[in-house]
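Worked problem 6 (solution included).
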Amino acid sequence: MTDFNNLAQQWATTSGFNAAAAANGGAQGSKVDWWSPKNGDTILRILPPGKSGCKLFQDGMWGIRQFRYEVWGNGPFTNFTGDKPLIATCGNRTLPAEFFSDPIKEALTRNDAYLPNEVSDKFYARNKVLVNVMIREIRDERNNVIDQDLCNKPVVASLPTRFWNFLTDPNNVNHFNPFNGLDIRVSRRGKGLTTEYSYAFLPGVAPGPVVADQNQMMGLLDQVEDLYDLVKAQVEKSQDNEKSIIALIDNLAQINKDKVSSNFGTPTQSTTIAPIIPPPAPTPPPAPTPAPAPSQDRIGFQPAPAPAPVPEQVATPTPAPSGNVGVPDCVGQYEARNPGASVANPADSECQVCPTKTVCYFQSKSPF
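Solution. The predicted structure is:
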């Protein structure tokens, strides 16, 4: 009988897996799409992320994370008319040691003032987890066995973001050894925003090899994809799509910028309203010279009557300029143009791209 415990120890020694790095959660990685769980339960086994000595094992990782941008026909880019989606793997987040920039993110930041909210707030790099697996069995929500053609062979699996915590948990790493590991149940329920996943090792099962035959096991380990090289190639191959996505961002921003400029000037130059300066206070007239005291030597002297007071001249105040001097014609129309909307999420297309929409809303509430 084959001693798989001894083989497990030998494999762990020669695989190149960095146990010290794994104890700290491993390095950060990425994703790719081949197989993803459907609603129901899947029993699978984690396989190495490449052959012995692969780059991911050197970083203490059993999988990799992938961040990628996706532009679809029904997405937030109204200027996208392609019949196929644009998908670009983000090198900066996926393989930070090789790539040091994220041009799409830079384009979003550069044009933020002229992009609609659904672009600037909701267009971001999606994150999934990529692992090599051997699928034992797939059952749907009614417990029917399905997709048997995917079973009993190495498969590249794309799993949700939270699977990364399960994959990098130091308490789980020892159970991934292909000669002495455990199977995992992946459960999926719900749809859309209510979709839920759970991951757990099968209870009450002793650790063992992926397959019982030693020769078959070695052949299996030679078939696994090198996930690091796979994702790195995706980054390089998606550069044309990356440029197309950046062009969409720049083009949409320019359209909105031109629209704003034609309606009420370039928004980057703030409108200045002349301050109201009160007129200076009037200068008081000089005090009248007191009449000389009557002389005691002049008999019958009568003092002259006091002069009548001169009325004070009141300065005419300069009329205050109207509060709407230099303000676009649309001010005061926010609620009429955006019924039921909020300042943070206007409905009118011109209000959406106006960089002064908060001020505009304040002025629309003003009685002036």
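Discussion: The chain has a mean pLDDT of 80.
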